[in-house]
Design a protein that fits this description.
Strand content: under 5%
Largest sheet: none
Order of helices and strands: HH
Number of helices: 2
Radius of gyration: 22 Å
Low-confidence stretches: none
Mean pLDDT: 85
């Protein structure tokens, strides 16, 4: 069985980043530009979700500090 032109030989071990890049390239049917754009879109989406969760956590922590105050302080 011969590898596709955009697939490494079976005996080569890929890094995690290379494995992800190859998966995006396969999903884009070998079109590297589409693969890059989709990878960046996914990364930006993940970053936005992480920021949303961080803000939510920070609000919960702040709310907890307000609730935890002793009366008169």
């Amino acid at each position: 069985m011969h590898p596709q032109p955009y697939e490494p030989p079976v005996e080569i071990r890929l890094s995690e980043a290379e494995t992800i890049a190859l998966a995006y390239r396969r999903a884009a049917r070998g079109d590297v530009w589409i693969a890059l754009v989709r990878a960046i879109e996914d990364a930006l989406s993940d970053l936005a979700e992480a920021e949303r969760r961080t803000l939510q956590r920070d609000r919960l922590i702040s709310h907890g500090y307000v609730r935890g105050r002793r009366p008169g302080t």
